[in-house]
Amino acid sequence: MSINITSRLAKFDELIPSNIPFVEGKLKGHQDRKNYSVIGPGVSEDAKQNVKIAEEHGFNIGAVSAAPMNGSGLHSHTTAEVFIIHSGAWRFYWGVDGTEGEVILKKGDIASFPTNMFRGFQNVSDEEALMFVVLGENDPGVITWTPKLLKDAKESGMVLMNDNSLIDTEKQKITDETKIIQPLEDNELESFDHYSSEDIEKFVIRFNDKDKYFVDDDHYQSNKIINYIDQFQIHDKSFTPNIPHATGFSLSLLNGKSAHIHEYKLEKSEVYHCLSGEWEIDCDGDKVVIKEKDTFSVPKNSLRSIRQISDHDGNLFIIRQTN
C-alpha cells in the first residue's frame, strides 16, 4: 500500500508531552502533570504542544498523566469529553465550586462528561496515574475556566489571551491587557448546567462491571464487545450504546484472549487503542502490533483486520468517527 502505516502508530513511550499545557500550570495541584496530543491538537493552550498525528479524524485523542494529588482544575468544554482510565485512581468533581458531586474512576473505567458543565480531576492514588481522553469534533473548541482558577493563575504569572494563547508574564510582557480573557461574571455562570453524583453515574461504566455490559459476538465466538457510546456495527451486527450521549464518535471495547475481527473496510476514521494485551493489525497486507497505551489510526478505506496475540486476555478500544 502507498501509506506508511508505521507513521500512523502512536507508541505512548515515544510521545512528547507538554509540562505546562494550560493556564493553571503553575498552581499547586496542577504543576506536576503532563499533557499529550495523540490525534489532533485537542484543547491544549500550549502553542508548542507536540501533536503525534495531525490528520483530522472527526475527533481528538489525548492523554494526561499526573503525580499524586495533581490534575486539572475546574473547566468546561463545548464538545464531548470522554475519559479512558489506564492507571491509578482519579477523582472527578464538578460544579463551579467543585462541590456538586464526585466520582472515583480506576483502570478500564469509562466516563462521558456532558458539555456546558464545570469539571475537574485529580490523581488520588499513591503513584503517577494515566488516562486518555477523547474529545469531539476536529476542532474541540477552547476551555472555559472558572473565575477562581483564572484569578489564581494570574497571580501565579500565567494569563490566557483572547486568541487562546498562553503567556507566562515572568518570561513575556503583555502589550495589550485588554486582550486578556477575563473571569466570567455571576450572571454568565448561571448558564452552566448542574449535575448530582447520581446523574453522572449514568454516564459511567466501570471495568469491574464489564460482565453486565458484554455482548457476545455471534459471528466470532471468542469475542465479547461493549459499546459505550453511539452506534457500533461490525459485519452487519449492531451493538446498542450504553451511554446516551451524542459525541460525534463511537467508543467500543473488544475483549478476549483470542479476540479478533476479520477483514472489513470503513470510509470514515477509525482508531484502535490498547488497554491490555497485544494486538496485531493488518492493513492491506501490512502489519503492525500495538501494546498497552499504544494507539493506531487506521487508513480510511483500507482493508483491515485485528487479532489479540498475547497469552492473556486483551482489551482493545475502537473509536470511530460518526459525525
By CATH, the topology of the largest domain is Jelly Rolls
How many helices does DSSP assign? 4
Which sequence of strands runs across the widest sheet?
Answer: 1-25-22-27-20-17-16
Name the CATH superfamily assignment of the largest domain. Answer: Jelly Rolls
Average pLDDT reading: 95
| Level-1 CATH class name of the largest domain | Mainly Beta
Count of spatially separate domains: 2
Q: Estimate the global geometry from the Cα principal axes.
A: globular
Structural class call reads: mainly beta
Low-confidence parts lasting 5 or more residues at pLDDT below 50?
none
Rg calc: 20 Å
Amount of beta strand: 35-45%
Q: Describe it for me?
A:
Helix content is 7%, strand content 41%. It has 323 residues and is mostly beta strands. The longest helix has 9 residues, at 147-155. The protein has four helices and 27 strands. A seven-stranded antiparallel sheet has the order 1-25-22-27-20-17-16, with no helix packed on it. A seven-stranded mixed sheet has the order 3-2-4-11-6-9-15, with no helix packed on it. It has helices at residues 147-155, 186-189, 197-201, 210-213; strands at 9-10, 33-39, 51-53, 59-66, 71-76, 81-87, 90-94, 101-105, 110-113, 119-123, 129-136, 144-145, 158-160, 166-168, 204-205, 215-216, 224-229, 232-234, 237-239, 249-256, 260-264, 270-276, 279-283, 286-290, 295-298, 304-308, 314-321. Strand 7 and strand 8 form a beta hairpin. The protein has two domains: 5-205, Jelly Rolls (Sandwich); 209-321, Jelly Rolls (Sandwich).
Topology:
Layout: E1 9-10, E2 33-39, E3 51-53, E4 59-66, E5 71-76, E6 81-87, E7 90-94, E8 101-105, E9 110-113, E10 119-123, E11 129-136, E12 144-145, H1 147-155, E13 158-160, E14 166-168, H2 186-189, H3 197-201, E15 204-205, H4 210-213, E16 215-216, E17 224-229, E18 232-234, E19 237-239, E20 249-256, E21 260-264, E22 270-276, E23 279-283, E24 286-290, E25 295-298, E26 304-308, E27 314-321
Parallel strand pairs: 2-3
Antiparallel strand pairs: 1-25, 2-4, 4-11, 5-10, 5-12, 6-9, 6-11, 7-8, 7-10, 9-15, 13-14, 16-17, 17-20, 18-19, 20-27, 21-26, 22-25, 22-27, 23-24, 23-26
